[in-house]
C-alpha cells in the first residue's frame, strides 16, 4: 500500500483578499453597481474597459459618472497587485515581474515575446505545496491559493503592457508558481475569463492556453468534463514510480499509470494532444533506459495524442540539481522519438534573471 504523500503547507494568512470585479459573476457585478445607484448597463461598460482595453484605473473610464468613479473603484477595483521588481533579459524580449499582493504575499509572472506570438506564464498559487525537490517554488512551501481576480489581473497587466508597446498577448501558460489543479475552481473561472470574447473576457483562444499539473488524476478527469479545448500539460519528469515518488511526491498518491490514464481521458474528451513536461536533470532522470521507457509508456497510453516537451533544468542557487549536458539531451530526444513519440526541447528564456519559478520570490524573502 502506498504511503500518504506529505505535502508542504504553511498556515493560511488570516486576511482575506478583497473582492475584485473579476471575482464576481455577471449578476453579482450588476448587484454591486445597483448598490451604488448605477444601472445594470454600467457592468457592460466597465467590462469593456477591463477586458477590451485592459484598464483597471477607474479614472480612465470617463463614460462613468464622475461622481461615482471613486465609489466604483473602492467597491470593485481594489489594488490586487503592486509591482515590486521587474527584470528584463533576452534584449528586452523576456520580462519577469515580482508582485506584492495586498497581504504581503509574493507572486511571479513572466512575459515572453517571440516574433510570432507573446506568451505569459502566470501563477495560480502563491508558493506551492507539491514539494518537488528541484523546484524553487516547491521548496518555499504554499502561502495560499490565489483568487480568480489575482490570476486574471496578471493577464490584464501583461496585455496592457503589450498593448502599450503596440503588440498583443496571444498565449497563456499556467506554469508559474503553484499547482493549478489544486486551486481548481478559481483556475477554471480564470480560464473562462481569459478565453471568453470581450466583454466577458480577453478573447484569447482556448487552444492558446496551457494548464499544467504535476498529476492530480481526479482533477484532470474533472477538467476533461469542463468541455474546454485548452492544452493539458503533465509535469511527469520520469516514467517510473520509484524515482517519481521522490521527484514528484504526489506520485505516492497518484501513480504514473493513473496519471497517464487520466491524461488519455482528457485527450479523448477534448480532442487535444497532451503535452508531457520533462525537466532533464543530470544523472537523475536523463538515462537511456528512462528515455526508452518514457517513449514506450506514452505510446501505449496516449498513442498519437501526446508530445514530450523536454526542459533543460534551470538550476536554482545552491541546489544539487543541474541540467544535463547537450549531448545527453540530444540522445534522450532521439530515443523518445525512436518509440514513435514526438519530442522537442523547450526554448529557454530568462536564465540570467532567475527565471525558474519561485527564484525571485525566494530571493526577496
TrEMBL record:
Q: Where does it live in the cell? A: Cytoplasm
Phosphoprotein keyword on record: no
Task: Give any single GO term for biological process.
Answer: tRNA methylation
Fetch the CDD domains from UniProt. Radical_SAM
Ligand binding (S-adenosyl-L-methionine): 178-179, 212, 235-237, 314
What is a single cellular component term in the Gene Ontology annotation? cytoplasm
- Specify the Radical SAM core domain's residue ranges: 114-352
What's its job?
A: Specifically methylates position 2 of adenine 2503 in 23S rRNA and position 2 of adenine 37 in tRNAs.
Protein's recorded name: Probable dual-specificity RNA methyltransferase RlmN
Organism of origin is: Corynebacterium yudongzhengii
Q: Which gene encodes it?
A: rlmN
Amino acid at each position: 500500500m502506498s504511503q500518504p504523500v506529505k505535502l508542504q503547507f504553511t498556515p493560511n494568512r488570516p486576511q482575506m483578499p478583497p473582492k475584485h470585479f473579476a471575482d464576481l459573476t455577471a449578476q453579482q457585478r450588476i448587484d454591486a453597481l445597483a448598490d451604488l445607484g448605477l444601472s445594470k448597463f454600467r457592468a457592460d461598460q466597465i467590462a469593456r474597459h477591463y477586458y477590451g482595453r485592459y484598464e483597471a484605473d477607474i479614472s480612465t473610464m470617463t463614460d462613468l459618472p464622475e461622481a461615482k468613479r471613486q465609489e466604483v473603484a473602492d467597491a470593485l477595483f481594489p489594488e490586487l497587485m503592486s509591482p515590486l521588481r521587474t527584470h528584463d533579459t533576452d534584449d528586452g524580449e523576456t520580462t519577469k515581474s515580482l508582485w506584492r499582493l495586498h497581504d504581503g504575499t509574493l507572486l511571479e509572472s513572466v512575459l515572453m515575446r517571440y516574433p510570432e506570438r507573446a506568451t505569459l506564464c502566470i501563477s495560480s498559487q502563491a508558493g506551492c505545496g507539491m514539494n518537488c525537490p528541484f523546484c524553487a517554488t516547491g521548496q518555499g512551501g504554499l502561502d495560499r491559493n490565489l483568487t480568480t481576480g489575482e490570476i486574471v489581473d496578471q493577464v490584464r497587466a501583461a496585455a496592457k503592457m503589450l498593448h502599450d508597446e503596440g503588440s498583443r498577448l496571444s498565449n497563456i501558460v499556467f506554469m508559474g508558481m503553484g499547482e493549478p489543479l489544486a486551486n481548481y475552481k478559481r483556475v477554471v473561472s480564470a480560464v473562462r475569463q481569459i478565453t471568453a470574447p470581450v466583454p466577458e473576457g480577453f478573447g484569447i483562444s482556448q487552444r492558446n492556453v496551457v494548464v499544467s499539473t504535476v498529476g492530480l488524476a481526479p482533477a484532470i478527469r474533472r477538467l476533461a468534463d469542463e468541455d474546454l479545448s485548452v492544452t493539458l500539460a503533465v509535469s511527469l519528469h520520469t516514467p517510473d514510480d520509484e524515482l517519481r515518488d521522490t521527484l514528484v511526491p504526489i506520485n505516492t498518491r497518484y501513480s504514473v499509470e493513473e496519471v497517464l490514464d487520466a491524461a488519455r481521458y482528457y485527450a479523448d474528451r477534448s480532442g487535444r494532444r497532451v503535452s508531457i513536461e520533462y525537466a532533464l536533470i543530470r544523472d537523475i532522470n536523463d538515462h537511456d533506459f528512462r528515455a526508452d521507457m518514457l517513449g514506450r509508456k506514452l505510446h501505449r497510453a496516449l498513442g498519437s495524442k501526446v508530445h514530450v516537451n523536454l526542459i533543460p533544468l534551470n538550476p536554482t542557487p545552491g541546489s544539487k540539481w543541474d541540467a544535463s549536458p547537450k549531448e545527453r539531451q540530444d540522445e534522450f530526444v532521439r530515443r523518445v522519438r525512436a518509440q514513435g513519440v514526438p519530442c522537442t526541447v523547450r526554448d529557454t528564456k530568462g536564465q540570467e534573471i532567475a527565471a525558474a519559478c519561485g527564484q525571485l520570490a525566494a530571493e526577496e524573502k
